[in-house]
Records
---
Amino acid sequence: MAKKASDHFKGIPDLPDDPRAKKSRPKIMAVVDEDNCTGCQACVPFCPVDCIEVMESIIEIDDGICIDCDLCVFICPIDVLSSVATATI
Ligand code: SF4
Ligand code: SF4
């Protein structure tokens, strides 16, 4: 059977639901001390990948997206964010 021209083109692969999501956790990521975070949200606009979610009065970091750039760690005015090896958490 003769092949059609369209047989030679590959289909466009399906896009993941969230293109920013990584397949594996980073080796190091930012972690918040939930007991002491004031929920001031000063760190939120500085995250380049928008992975800091504001919960009721604290923040939560999505480890599937965090790229461990440490920007939020430097920004937090009360030093409740730290960079931690994910194997330890
Ligand atoms: S370390 Fe960087 S990517 Fe991770 S939450 Fe902080 S600002 Fe966002
Ligand atoms: S800047 Fe610090 S205290 Fe403010 S929301 Fe972020 S982690 Fe919490």
---
Amino acid sequence: MSKETTPGAIVHYNRGCALAMKGEWDGAISEFRTALLIDPNHAHAHVNLGNALSLSGDMEGAISAYRAALRLAPDDAYAHIGLGATLAKQGNRDEAAAEFRTALRLAPNDVETHNNLGLVLAEQGDWEGAITEFRTVMSLDPDHAVARTNLGKALSKLPKEKGADGNVQDQSALSEKDRAIIQRLGEPEASADPVEKQKDLMRLFGPAHYVVYAHSLCATALYQRILSKGHVIDPEQTEEFAPNEILGHEDIVLDQGVPRRRGITHCDHCGVQFQAGDGKYVSYCVLEPDELRLWQEVKNEDKGKSEQP
Ligand SMILES: [Zn+2]
């Protein structure tokens, strides 16, 4: 927002926001435009004008408004998000993806932007990129049902795409075992049994899950809360840590397919920051019940295979 916003512009801007909240786009657009006549440097008024125009169907107008905002405030994540969403609506996927990626550099935990980037990548046929985004949404917001559905769809597309052209990007990065699984998924009979297909995908990508950390005093309450939400915990992935194993250490999360380090800073139950004087910590690997059941089947099958002479 401009430092020297005149009072008149603020009044119109606030009226515009109030009308936009009610879905009165025409009135909102007119108020934002009046605010911008008084103060053309009001970046938020440009962003909100863009949102109102985009929602009212004026994509070109919206794009100019977002670009005007970005000339004034290049690091405004909301302007990048709005511009990306409008470009995506127009079918301009490359530019939309670029805007979403810029927004995520500025606001890495914006759940909806990860989901929207995943959708754009899926539309481009980049299933692996899409899967990474949907998994990131699930790790940030395990209850995000839309992302979960999107993840399922993207996972089901993956083998067909791979089988169709027989090519897998960056073959050299794949292990012998992964290559065998991908080859199996590419064979026509692979799609006959959806459960087997899902298991093979799990062998490649692991189950969809997220990891939480808690003070050991908070662990039971967190456990109960996870169960009450209908999620389950993988007992084999439950770990205990001493303070020196957590403090200053980081968790690795995937960000647009690139491993990124995220500090383990606070208890996921009470929200209090971890400190050197704390007792032990517990971490849980949280999944959906179906995911855990299938994951255990996969591990048992693979164990059985490796034990055969
Ligand atoms: Zn706690």
